[in-house]
Amino acid sequence: MLGRKTKSTIDSLIGMSTMIEGNLHFKGGLRIDGQVKGNVIAEPESASMLVISESAKVEGEVRVAHLVVNGEIIGPVYSTELLELEPKARITGDVHYKALEMHGGALVSGKLTHDQAGEPVLKLALSNT
Predict the structure, then answer these.
(1) At CB < 8 A and 24+ separation, what contacts does 37-43 make?
(2) Cβ contacts of residue 124 below 8 Å, gap of 6+?
(3) Spatial distance between the Cα atoms of 109 and 89, rounded to a whole number of angstroms
(4) Percent of the chain with pLDDT over 70
(5) What is the pLDDT of residues 69-84, one digit of tens each?
(6) What pTM value is reported for the model?
(7) To which protein family does this belong (predicted)?
(8) Sign of the C-alpha dihedral, residues 115, 118, 120, 121?
(9) Which of 43, 62, 80, 113 shows the smallest number of beta carbons within 10 Å?
(10) Would you give the DSSP letter of residue 4?
(11) What is residue 119's DSSP assignment?
């Protein structure tokens, strides 16, 4: 494993039938099941977690400490801690990360950039378990 994962709770939910147009700023944990047309930005300097579910789509910049993607993001992604790309993840845009866990089936159409000094931490999950 990549070490200890940050334990975060989901404080807010954007439901499957919800569509938001505009920028979204949040603290703590957020799960998106619907659609967001705008930037999704977590409070800097604080622990944050964002889950993009299989049914979700975000069109805009995403900035968060811990990001779990199993849906679609169209725009640049900045993860200051851990980026988890699940099997159905689809990202169209450049991705900046500190640690990366990528499962088989996940797709990134853009440049992957490790943003911290030292060697990048990369884990490829070869099975879909």
Answers:
(1) 39/63, 39/75, 40/64
(2) 102, 103, 104
(3) 11
(4) 83
(5) 999 999 999 999 999 9
(6) 0.84
(7) Belongs to the bactofilin family.
(8) negative
(9) 113
(10) P
(11) P
Residue reference for tokens 């494993």: 1
Amino acid at 81: E
Could you list the residue range(s) of the whole structural domain that residue 106 is in? 12-125
Number of structural domains the chain divides into: 1
In a domain, 94, yes or no: yes
- Comparing 118 with 52, the larger pLDDT belongs to 52
Q: Is residue 63 in some structural domain?
A: yes
Which percentage of the chain shows pLDDT scores above 90? Answer: 78
Structure tokens at 42: 């977590």
Q: Would you say 110 and 97 are in contact if contact means Cβ atoms under 8 Å apart?
A: no
